Amino acid sequence: MKKLLFSLFFVLQVVISYAQGVQEIKGKVVDAKTQMPISSVSVRIQASTNSSLTNNEGNFTLENVKAGNQDVVISYVGYITKRLPVEVGDKVIDLGTISIDEDFASIEQLGIISLTENDLSDDNSSNDTSSGLLQATKDPFQQAAAYNWGSAFFRIRGLDNEYGKTMINGVVMNKAQDGRPQWGNWGGLNDATRNQVFSAGSTPSDFNFGGILGTQNISTRASQIRKGAKAGFSASNTNYTWRPYAIYSSGLNKKGWAFALSASYRGAKEGYFDGTNYDALSLFAAVEKKFNDNHSLNFTAIYAQNKRGKNSPITDEQAELKDFKYNSYWGWQNGDKRNSRYKDVSEPIFQLTHYWKIDEVSNLTTTASYQFGHIANSRLGYIDGINPDPTYYKKLPSYFLNKIEPKYWSMTKEEFESSGDTEFVNTTRALLDQAQYVKDEFQSFGQINWDEIYTINQANGGASKIMQYEDRQDDKTFSFNTNFKTILSDHVTLDAGFNYRRVHSNYYKKAVDLLGGEFYMDLDTYQDGGKQDSDLNNPNRAIGVGDKFGYNYTIDSNIVDVFTQFNFDYDKFDFYVAQKIGYTSYERDGKYRNAVYANDSYGKSGLVDFNNYGFKGGVVYHLTGRHAFSVNAAYYNQAPTIRNTFANSRLNNLVTKDLTNEDVFSIDGSYIVRTPKLKARVSGYLSEIKNGTQINFYYADGVGIVDDNGDFLSTTGGAFVSEILTGVNKRNIGVEIGAEYQLTQTLKATAAATIGQSIYTNNPNLRLNSDNVAKTFDYGTAYMKDYRTGNGPQTALSLGLEYRDPAYWWVGANINYMDHAYTNISGLRRTENFVKDPATGQPFSNLTEDKLRSVLKQEQLADFTVVNITGGKSWRLPNRNIIGFFASVNNLFNKQYKTGGFEQARNANYEREMLNTQSGTNTFSNKYWYAYGRNFFVNVYYNF
Fold it and tell me: What is the DSSP string of 229-268?
């Protein structure tokens, strides 16, 4: 803290020299087609902080512009950026009326992004993507990452979304639960949320200290939403199949009022993957009152409900028996496909923002926000071991094939028939018959049998054995944010901000369907008889639809962030320094006294809190007006998320042992060139993330956990566990290249490439917690150093051409190559437990180093190449209204490829691995997600 205060005071002591500006530039910006003025267009002097916004009449003025050759950059979301070279002398420069053209490709690509944002993190997958964060960028490399590589779950610089900040009107939208934004909270409202500012990496942002992935702020100020009306209809064959939408914006009227309304609906009876239905309604309203030139008040309301059927990860065995579109989560019921697992999000947002122009050089923007609602993830629950999952391992051929004696697999048919061992032959034939039977059953059906579930439940006196429930997270979030910006001199600008969030979260199971039964017993039948109750305060409880059960607790979070940032602008050098301090606290309050953790589950956990700080800075050197070099560096620490703070928050108050702040360091350097024809950037980057925590839940055979009597919990030495990895260190290093070249006035070439490496740089500590014995076991070192992190392709290349005809039609195509994607590894399989016999504690005698390396080799997914094409056309009608369409076909040649995957930890030691792979097919092999095959997106719209 002393170092932080010292640095703050040091920055404030900078000698600020005041000088008079040289001249001013003015002009008016209009739409090229309609010739109507456009408000809130950004007009700035390239390579400086001198900027302005157009007013309601489209007029702007840039004051105190330095003498000499300058480039005026005119940009607005959804329009093609225009650059005008000017020579500034001793006179006012009037640029007159400047026309800018709509960028129909970028407008419609906002819709394409929403198709790839599956948000699979709710299934504990790593398949999130940076696409949503990059919507506002015009950088060639980042555009390729968002639009061309997003479907492969490519991550910018190997980073999760928790290392970026997403805001609406300055209010941070990253969730306290996992640090990631919930994109669905404003999904389907592309036109209403298109006013965005994105700062890449750790570069400065006016709104927040940010993260090392980038900082995105969405503005919903009514007067800055493009004036007019638009209605359209989209069709696709990915997440949803159809989408009507509309928006109307009044602009600012003479009485100082402005309002905007938008609505859309996205729906599908079945998406691209089997059984994935989609239902999403989105509504938006913003009203602004401008009281005078200094004060405006804006109210925003966003409601985006989204319910979608999920798609399961699958093994190679399952894909071969079915196909890559196989989804185990659904089954036929009354002639319809019913998905047992859906995600339902409904979290409306209400914000009130005050804009205060204090004087000609200072502005204060303050937002109060309230958000409430739920995130629900459904699944089937069961008791007495009746597992309805069609991919339960005993329902697959590999289970029976791997029970056959190993010698069979090296025999010829003749050797087997003439072996003379009658028992071996008969047993083998029986297992082969069973394998063939379940294979036939799986291929002909292989889905959830809803009719069978109802039959089971109706045969037990009204007591359901199987039911459908939701894992619920009900949040109430109050946020307050204020940002101050002032020009201290011709060379120095100050940004400062304060952000506070208080989140009250209620986590619980909710019964949604008893599936033919009348009640369900709130018991964990995998526990011993005296420890089966979820709540000892209400033992032996029968529940009905709508009841809470299983677990029920709240967590109160308080998060405070304060930052300051100084931007310095000189002729050859621009540089900035920023700093932040923060505070985060969590407290769990258990509503149930769990029978396993009777003394550690009910009531409050006590406060768990963290203090944070951070620094960042950067410099840009302008070699000329068109060539520049930049360097950015950042160091900060951040509090662990709720998910990682409590070792098993569903059942107890226990805090993760050895929990600390996560340390984040990043540095990057770039060469940037901008000429009338060429726009390019070459960057190198390095990030180090240390002291991370990862928590996973699964069942593992061979973990050697014993009960109080010293007996294994199961015949396989297996148990359901929570895995806790602490002290996890990662490194991301690589090179990025992005370029656009205007070959002719109508033809543009684009290129983007990255070569990166994302690895674990140490061997973290691993603990397993078993609810069966209510204990945590230290498994020591997990040997993960130098393994790749499973974060999508680490090598990517894109080449594209785009033709824009003066008659307002365009067509484009790009080819994309991606490689070096890896599955997520299991930490448990890389501890000493994997090589030791749980019965003796000694290494397996038949295990050699070569065998161990082969078994634990990380899987690299196959490389792939995909081609995408896009095109569109617009027409101006006699009444100056516009009608147009956009179409795209992605993965034109229907390439089938895996986007990610993970190792199952079920085989927790070498013996179990060998027993479950004897046939050559691992019963518990890696699971994968697949990309869409050939898919399309079409949009027709009418602007009026």
Answer: EEEEEEEESSS-SEEEEEEEE----TTSEEEEEEEEEEEE
Q: Do 622 and 573 touch, CB atoms closer than 8 A?
A: yes
What pLDDT is recorded for position 105? 57
Q: Please tell me the total number of residues recorded for the chain in this structure.
A: 944
Phi, psi of 618 (to 5 degrees): -165, 165
Which tokens belong to 312?
A: 């399961």
For residue 544 the two structure tokens come to 């009905």
CA distances from 401 to 432, 615, 906, 921 (A): 7, 58, 18, 8
Q: Which of 215, 232, 225, 281 is nearest to 108 (CA)?
A: 232
- The DSSP code sequence of 331-375 is EEETTEEEES-EEEEE--EEEEEEEEE-SSSEEEEEEEEEEEEEE
Distance CA 95, CA 81 (A): 16
Residue 12's pLDDT is what?
A: 40
pLDDT of residue 289: 98
d(CA 812, CA 814): 7
The answer to whether 273 and 325 are in contact (CB under 8 A) is yes
Tokens describing residue 317: 């065995």
Q: Mind spelling out the 3-state secondary structure of 476-515?
A: EEEEEEEEEEEECCCCEEEEEEEEEEEEEEEEEEEEEECC
- 226/251 Cα distance (integer angstroms): 7
CA distance 381 to 467: 5
Q: What is the pLDDT of residue 113?
A: 43
Our measurement of the distance from residue 82's CA atom to the centroid of its chain's CA atoms, rounded to an integer in Å, reads: 32
Rounded distance, CA 267 to CA 897, Å?
Answer: 26
Give dist(CA 50, CA 71) in Å, integer.
11
CA-to-CA distance for 456 and 450, rounded, in angstroms? 10
Query: What SS3 state is found at 186?
Result: helix
Predicted confidence at residue 28, as pLDDT, reads: 93
Mean pLDDT by 10 residues, the chain (944 residues): 43 37 82 79 80 85 84 83 86 90 61 42 47 63 91 93 96 96 93 92 95 95 94 95 97 95 97 96 98 97 97 97 97 96 97 96 97 98 94 97 94 90 94 97 96 94 95 98 95 96 98 97 88 95 97 98 96 94 98 95 97 97 92 98 95 95 98 93 98 93 76 72 96 98 96 98 96 90 97 96 93 97 96 90 90 95 97 91 94 96 93 93 96 96 94
Q: How many CB atoms lie within 10 A of CB 448?
A: 25
Give 257: exposed, middle or buried? Use CB within 10 Å, 0-12, 13-18, 19+. Answer: middle
Distance CA 892, CA 826 (A): 35
CA 452 to chain centre: 37
Tokens in use for 309?
């059927």
Q: Which residue is it, tokens 């159809």?
A: 242
The Cα–Cα gap between 677 and 682 comes to 17
